[in-house]
Amino acid sequence: MGNSYAGQLRTTRFEEVLHNSIEASLRSSSVIPRPVFSQLYLEAEQHASSQDGFCQSGKDLRLASIANDPLEVPPGFLLVGAKCPSLPDHILVCAVDRRFLPDESGRNALLGFSGNCVGCGEKGFRYFTEFSNHINLKLTTQPKKQKHLKYRLFRSPQGTLVKGPLICWKGIDGRVKQMASNTCASHITSEELLPTPAAMEMLSGIGHVAPTTAGVPADVPAPAYPQGAPPTQPSSRDCPLSQQPRHPPGKPPMTGTIANTGPPKKRHKGWSPELRPATEPAVKTTSSASALNNKLDNSAPLCASQGCSPLPPPEGAVTVPDNLLQTCGVQPIILKGHGSLPPLCGNVCEVTVSPLLEACYRSAQTLPRVYEQYGASPIQPLSAEMQILLTVYYLVQLAPDQVPLIEDLEQIFMRSWRESHLTEIRQYQQGHGQPPPTLPSPAQPLTASQLPWLAKLAASSCGEGVLVLDTAGSLTEGLEDTFLCLQEGKLAQTNYVVIICLPRGHDIESCVVVTGKQQARALAESMHTPADSLKEIARQLATGKVAELDTFFSSLGPDGNVDALLEESSLEGNSHSSLSSILQSSGESLKGACTEYRVEWHEIRPIQLAVARKLLSHLCAIADSSTQNLDLGSFDKVDFLILVPPSEVTFQQIALHLWSSGVLQELGLDAKGTSHIEAEQRVVRLNREAQGRINTLIHNSRINPSTLFILVHDHAHWDLSRGPYAGGDSCSGLVDSLLNCQGIWEAPNIVTLHVTSFPFALQTQSTRISPYNEVHWPSSFSNDVDLYQEKTKYFGMSEFLESTRSGSGLPLLRYDSLFESMASALGERFPKLHSSVIRTYVLIQHYTLALMVLSGRSRLQKHTSAETLELVRDLLDSSRGCSGHHGHMVLLRVPSLSLASLAHQRLRRVRDSLGLQDRFEIVLGSPGSGLSVSRHFLEQLKTWLNIQDSNWTPRTYLELEALPCILIFSGMDPLGESLPRSLKYCDLRLISPSHLLRTTLEQELGLAAYLVRAEAQGGRPPVSDLSESDPEKLSSTDNEEEELVGNRSADPPGLDRSVPSAGLLTLPDSSIVDHEQQGVRQTPGSSVIVSGDPAQCKRRPSSSTQASSHSSPGRRCPWAHSRNRPPVVLLPRVAYEALTSVDSSGLPKSTSFLPHPYVEWASSFRPLLSKMMTCTEQSLYYRQWTIPGPQHMDSSNRAEGRAENFHPRRLLLSGPPQVGKTGAYLRFLGILSRMLIRLMEVDVYDEDDINLSVPVKPVQYHQPGVSWPNIDILKAMPFDYTVHDPKFEDISTVYSPDFTSAGDGIVRRQDEVYLRRRTSRIKLSKYAAYNTYHHCEQCHQYMGFSPRYQLYESTLHTFTFSHLLLGEEIQLYFIIPKSKEHHFAFSHPGGQLESMRLPLTSDWNPNSIKSPIFTPTTGRHEHGLFNLYHAMDGATHLHILVIKEYELSVYKKYWPNHIMLVLPSIFNGAGIGAAHFLIKELSYHNLELERSRQVEQGSRPQDVWPFIVLADDSCVMWNSVEVDPRSGGAVTEKNVSLKQVLQHMESSPDITRYGLCGLRKWSSRGVGPGRPREPFSRGHLHDFLLLNVDLTQDVQFNQNRFLCDGVDFNLRVHSAGILIFRFNNFSVMKKQIAIGGHRTFLIKTKVTPDPMAKVSDIPTSLPPSQYVCAPDSKHTFLAAPAQLLLEKYLQHTSQHLFPLSVRNYSHPVLSVDCYLNLGPEVTVCFISSRPHSVNISTTGLLFGGLLLYFCDSFVTPSFLKKFQFLKGATLCVICPDRSSLRQTVARLELEDEWRFRLRDEFQTANAKEDRPIFFLTGKHV
Questions:
Q1: What is the pTM of this model?
Q2: Helix, strand, coil shares, percent, the chain, to 5
Q3: What region holds the GREB1-like second domain (predicted)?
């Protein structure tokens, strides 16, 4: 293809050429289709047998045409390229016997010739003359193979035939001569740059030899490069500074040898993998993006383009000639290099100076700090000479239309440096940071004297493309010579002039002057910001500078003058009438509703819900962290604000998503949910009005501290400019001023959520977002498995790129070669016009001519591209092929609003002139305005969507679903707009190719992202429908039937054929939200309401939205047919090649670009991104290797001097475009609200009392309103032996002769009833107890976590006492924080702990609690309710956690400011009985010590407070019942503080005469039905006890017990005659905690009986009946306490042990001095053997069994003979060992009345060293 669209059109028919091209493209593995229009426009007319480039058989031999074709090459033959004088731009492919070709040294070639024709396949040509005639060389002299066989040809890794090195016929002389005479007419390959063997010898003196060149055959010797020049050169696909290389389509990309940073296909000597630098260098790299505003250098001042005033030329200045642009057609770019650039004067407006190259040089000369610190080291930076030489090498390799990219040059420098110091770097790394030893340098450095001729030698390989000037004495002379040559036209073929100056006694100086027209234009435009470019475009349009373009198009003749053609069309009434008749007939034939149109709105997708939960999890992690930056428990409501870019469509889109999602109703912000007003108030455009909304938010956060405000920053990458905001229309700095202000930063109840598809620019070294607060969108598929079962698959950038490599059809990602050629040619013709203006005019011309072609003027199709013709044809055909006139959308992206308005105006004019105004709409979409649709199409939309509101108009692009239209999408960048599924083509040919940034490219491509139905089975992703590019379709006339048939062609591979005709409509991005969508709600009968006020939208059925049960045969709606296919994307060639080319890491080259203009690379020694990196790893990469520029809002984030200044309440949600992020964060708001409500609530047990007994004559002992009991009345009240607490419904009933069942009908359950118990969800009051997750501001000091306070120090103290039951001294440990030491008495400050201080009975303090509170706990360090700050209402109290030794560290971690009582290690396996026993005995021992201490101070012993509180770790709230006597005894219950409850109990009269006080268990049904409201009662107490350790001195808890120790203790206290009573007007609520407590005791299997035996980690599967065994038997031993095994055994098997008492209340089991749970079917009668004990009367009671447990001396034979037993009753005697068992049987004379057998002796299933418990059973005789 040439450089201009003009030329003679070939006579070959358009259809034939296109057909051949498509066939060749489908056969080819190349991603670039063969050029069709280059043949049509630029090639000469063909002849059958004598056409140039073809053999006499008419077969094409040109490399550009057959590079991708399979060619037959016989063994021993090589493919070589022949030069044809008549075709200087082409190479002819020949197959030649390698014996007749010279070797690499230019020798050993046989005389003669032997070759074959690769075109027609004819073989056996023995003479080159004969062969040259066959291939039509048309020589006027004698043909010689040495003259015309020029190149070796090779296959690239992509399978494309590419030009290789020159064939060396005459050695170095001939080679150099050929290199010098060669021109840059075509691309220079890597081998052409390589020095010849003679040059290798000359360079060998320098001593550096480069590795083998990639792509060169193994038998070709490697060329040499001075000072470690890199082994690979840049591919032409590498990204330029402002655009990608433009190699002619059909020609392969270059396989370069310098800038290719990746390894060759096969590793060879000298290649090394990337070495990651240890640290960043000191000097940061200035990249192209960061230098946008630095394009003017101080030493070379340039005036604005508006004009300049003459300046007096300073001394040594360079005068820029006048009319330079007019003379040579180019505005040169001067790239500063080394040294100082002289000042410029004169016509400086036509010259631009750029510092980019200079910054690159400086960065490459700054080593990483890890090497700098060693001073004189063999690891040295690149020299200036080497940098200049490598720069020349790089420029030589660039294609004629390729623009240099500074990142490529950085990679070249880095690889060269690493190659030259590879040995030293490896030695340093192996030495673990030690400086490398000084080794002799393997070669001498490149000298200044060698540089010029080496640079010239390299430049000679491309002819005149690169010119090296070294004759000038200074840069001034060199620049003057360059300007002179430009004026004289000597640099017409030169793209770059490299000026090298070697002044004596001074450092080397250099610069590069860019003189190529395309290169200079691209570099100049890239140095302007996008905003400046848009202003320049608007200026050119406003000043009329583009009029010359209109004049040019009008001068092209009758086929180019659009105005004349349109005028001609308006005069040809016949054509219009014929077209109208076609439309009319089409409308009649397809009249009726479309049977395939159906809109089905989705609930939220599973993956969106998963992301919402991840966001919630991260928010909870912030709240749970030790930083205390967020207290979720203090919030009872969620409010939010969503910030969006200033786009009207985006604003309406988010508002509709919000309204339809139901989130407002869920959060209680819009109760009715019938209006959009509330939704629009929650969405804020980021314009000048946003400041007031943010101020209101900050104010509301201060006055509503219990409300959590979520500030959602959607499309967060849009404005990153640094504040302050200056006001006006420009939004620069607004986001920084709003989100980073002090009010947002410090508000404890504002959480900021950034949402973006491109987070890279937010992930710099100075980011405000913690890496732990990032949430990345998960992949929905893993190994073709749908992880979330949602049956949709995301089709994004990677899938589009995969379609270019799949080979299963035309790719979805394409570029238009004809359009690019025309735009390039016009760019050279009009150098003063901006390239975007030119490209827009060309594209409007293409659309216009395509519409005319499809309106009947087929002769014009040669003037428009196939791509434009295809998309316009599909647009017209789609609506014509559907009875409902549904069609496709074509997106035309025009960033400039001025150009977009121009395109909109001209295309509408063309459409209307051609009579197509009813076929498709043209919509102009701009950020600052809404959508406007003509009345005809507006009525269609209303009909399809059942809208009867006359004022309704579409407000989002999604509401244009199925509307045939061209959407002209303007704006500098997309601002978050979502597009409908009817999008068929995404025309991005007009996006700016001048600013190559990762975010810019990916967000433009993100417009086409799509959610497709997942395939039933794994396979390739969908590609474009082959029918859309069918050659017959493209070449057909306006025949409707043929096009309808074409639309029904076979689906492409990879598409799901199972999609029904009325398939599922899956909306892109956040268009998929829960329940409702886009203002469209699903209603019964498929009627739909869209947007607007629902109150104004009447619902009525519509045939257009309902699919009938049958579809018309043989016809499908084109919209329905293709709605599950992603759109086709047309890109500029620059962007296409940036995306499709792959760097050494396997990623698209675009991923190595800077992410944003305001971001800079931290170092040029950075590695490349890896293909295997996850999103998290990419985030860490950018956090390490990028820094914010001075204009970036994060550049001020290190002002405080801290290394990591993360915002504590800031989250980042990132995910690909159009994937559903809006729906995810809206769902997050909903579940966050529910969670906060849940955090304010607690599940408490809400159960009725069990085993209720109805007295025959109810007695009211106390008046209902009395506050304290009367001790005399209490003594008269009977004790209720029956246990009523529902948690004990699976235990044995305690026998009471007064018990009469109330018939409550409760069915008892067997085991593990804990989790099945009834609970109620109750809102937490302000007096609740909390676990460790509560972090309010008030209790920070109480908890000891607040960073504002000094860390709490604790001291360890021992407390020793002895007890007869323990047999030895017990040493307990107190962990006492410094802040709590005042509760204890010490021998001296910091000395021995003496006692725990107790108050006097007479003491009274309204803000203090007298009784120490003990809370035994295990396994609940996180969930135990130990925070009593709010429950105590701030009262002073002493709270002690009783823990086991092995849990000390974890409890101390979570509760650093609590006093810990640590049980001895021997109790690590003990149960709750041991903790209660030690607490009580410790408390009594302490009471005695306190009495002794206070007696010395004058107090009486009986005046010391004797009470302690035993509280369960799940007591959450306390309630008080109040009786109102004035209202007839009405009862009200309210929540009160624990302080109030305890102070009331402690104030009871005669309190010291009571042994045990307790509270009622709360129930929502009160104290129980049918019972009088007695304020006090006597019975069992549980969970919360006020214990008098003085009165209960002789009654101990059983330290061995695991279960029911409270019931056992209550019975023994009562039998001792001690008063027990309960405050029924107070109740305690117990929280359901599913972990910890008694569940921590697991019974596991012991592997062997060996004392050192291992314990299985898996709980035993043995049933409880196997927990005991016969002594001395072989049985599976268990690793569990013997007492626990015994209690579990009795609980589950006592129905077999005591069969006469099963379900027999009148014959209970007699249990002496203890209560053991025998299971719910057996009744137990408790009797105390102590003298003067209180027992029930057993006269006349026959017992069904006798249980003796560890009986002491009070149990005698005479005592047992008082009781009567049934014949056959069972006796069970339990003792701690076998010996005491036999002694007990003998002492109690049990054998007199009980019969024993040897087999009735048992032991618990414990090994001997675990001390099993023994028991004996017998039968009563």
A1: 0.69
A2: 35, 20, 50
A3: 256-554
Contact 287, 998 (CB under 8 A): no
Q: Cα dist. 1073→50, 668, 718, 1212 in Å?
A: 66, 19, 23, 20
How many angstroms separate the CA atoms of 1546 and 548, rounded? 100
Report the alpha-carbon distance of residue 1181 to residue 1145 in Å, rounded.
Answer: 14
Residues 6+ apart with CB under 8 A from 397: 188, 190, 193, 233, 234, 254, 256, 257, 258, 259
Quote the DSSP letter at residue 856: T
Q: What is the pLDDT of residues 21-67, one digit of tens each?
A: 444 444 444 433 434 333 333 333 346 677 888 898 888 899 988 88
Q: Cα(26)–Cα(1818) distance, rounded to whole angstroms?
A: 95
Torsion of CA 63, 64, 70, 74, to 10 degrees: 0
> What's the sign of the alpha-carbon dihedral 1641, 1643, 1645, 1646?
positive
Q: Are 452 and 500 in contact (CB under 8 A)?
A: yes
The CA-CA-CA angle for residues 978, 980, 981, to 5°, reads 130
Q: Is the pLDDT of residue 226 over 90?
A: no
DSSP, collapsed to helix, strand or coil, labels residue 1732 as coil
- 1764-1775/1742-1749 β-pairing: parallel
Number of CB atoms found within 10 A of residue 1703's CB:
9
Residues 1394 and 1363: their CA atoms lie apart, in Å, by 18
Q: d(Cα 1173, Cα 1170) in Å, to the nearest integer?
A: 5
Burial of residue 558 (CB within 10 Å: 0-12, 13-18, 19+) is: exposed
Does residue 294 register a pLDDT over 60?
no
Residue with tokens 């293909």: 1171
Torsion, Cα of 1213, 1219, 1221, 1227 (10° steps): -130
Write the pLDDT tens digit of every residue in 369-416: 555 544 445 567 888 999 999 999 999 999 888 888 888 888 888 888
pLDDT of 1065 reads 31
How many of the other CB atoms lie within 10 Å of CB of 832? 13
Let me know the angle formed at the C-alpha of 1154 by 1149 and 1155, rounded to the nearest 5 degrees: 100
- C-alpha neighbours within 13 Å on the C-beta side of residue 762: 28
Q: What is the CATH number of domain 1642-1820?
A: 3.40.50
Please measure the distance between the N-terminal and C-terminal CA atoms of the chain and give it in whole angstroms.
Answer: 118
The Cα–Cα gap between 1027 and 1436 comes to: 83
Instruction: State the Cα–Cα distance between residues 1739 and 1755, nearest whole angstrom.
Output: 19
The DSSP H or E segment spanning 1342 is helix 1340-1343
Whole-angstrom Cα distance, residue 1395 to residue 1412? 13
Q: Kindly state the tokens that stand for 933.
A: 């649709």
Closest among 127, 96, 120, 119 to 109, alpha carbons compared: 96
d(C-alpha 1229, C-alpha 1239), whole Å: 15
Any idea which residue has 């500063």 for tokens?
Answer: 336
In angstroms, the Cα distances linking 1484 to 722, 1364, 1366 are 69, 14, 15
What are the extents of the domains in the chain? 1-24+558-586+796-1069+1113-1156, 606-646+686-792+1157-1239, 1241-1328+1509-1630, 1340-1383+1401-1494, 1642-1820
